[in-house]
Amino acid sequence: MVILESILTGMTITIGAGTLLYFYQNELLYPAKYRKKSCEFDIPIFSNDGILYTEVILTTKDKVRIRAYVYKRPNDDEACKRPTVLALHGNRGSIGQRSAIVHKFYHNFKFNVVLLSYRGYGHSEGIPSEEGIKIDAQTALEYIRRHPILYGTKLILYGRSLGGAVAIDLAARNEDEINALILENTFLSIPKLLSTLFSPLKYLTFICTQIWSSDEQIGTIKKIPILFLSGKLDALVPQQQMKELYELTNTSAGKEWKEFPFGNHGNTISQLGYWIVIKEFLLWAIFDKDEGKLK
Fold it and tell me: Where is the Serine aminopeptidase S33 domain (predicted)?
């Protein structure tokens, strides 16, 4: 009887979880609580360092107006010669929380930076979905390639968590436009992530509409150098998923793995040596290390 009750309880929990997954998966993956809160954060700007941004409204092919924030080097001649970073945030992220990213890439590395706010996040219109966010990222890429100053710059995609999946998808579909890919604490796919977080869901992942199949796409990237930044203590996205992505990568341009022993899902970016690793990766990925010039 005890065994039967346990089985019934387990079935009830699984069915309940499956029902939530089926009807509310977009809300679970792109929670409104955090998307609304993201509007409260100021866009990162450092007037003391002379960092100014331009807010642009981009209209996607499905007629959604999204926001991007462009931090261009102050001198146009310098801007067109320096790389550009397209930063892609996580599912609970806010571009207003990307101060460290802007400061390091813009102030320390002297790069141009573009922050994208997905549909439904910050002040962008629309409702987030896998299909929609992929369109948003493509729209941002096309904006950069049409920009009168940034169009010819080396382009680096930097994605954390969900942003890593967005970056992988964008790179896989636009390999000739991307020069380097930086991924932090991202996952194999949503079905595989859900199976890890709650094992009974492995029998219900067929009902997922949000897939983000990075495990399938990353192997199609053949000529972009990729850096993997992994927090060993990540409890949300198990490190094993990052390791498997690394193993699935077969780019001829080279790949690099860096583990941070005390990094979790949220604080890996603040771990000692994080930005040093990125700098050293970029030296061989897009620069001539001996001369410090772009390849």
Answer: 81-198
Catalytic residue at 161? yes
Active site residue 89: no
Residue 8 has a pLDDT of 36
Q: Which of 94, 129, 169, 234 is catalytic?
A: 234
Query: Cα(239)–Cα(265) distance, rounded to whole angstroms?
Result: 10
The contacts of residue 278 (CB under 8 Å, 6+ apart) are 104, 182, 227, 229
Q: Which residue of the set 161, 189, 214, 230 is catalytic?
A: 161
What is the Cβ-side half-sphere exposure of residue 234, based on CA atoms within 13 angstroms? 29
State how far the Cα of 264 lies from the Cα of 197, in Å rounded to an integer.
15
Rounded CA separation 225/216 (Å): 17
Q: Domains for the chain: give ranges and CATH numbers.
A: 2-294 (3.40.50.1820)
Q: What is the pTM of this model?
A: 0.87
Q: Is 147 a catalytic residue?
A: no
- pLDDT tens digits, 166-186: 999 999 999 999 999 999 999
257 DSSP β-pair partners: 228
Please tell me the distance from the alpha carbon of residue 109 to that of residue 112, in angstroms, as a whole number.
9
Query: Catalytic pick from 99, 123, 195, 265?
Result: 265
What residues contact 85, with CB distance under 8 A and at least 6 apart?
A: 101, 105, 111, 112, 113, 114, 155, 156, 157, 158
Polymer length in residues for the chain: 295
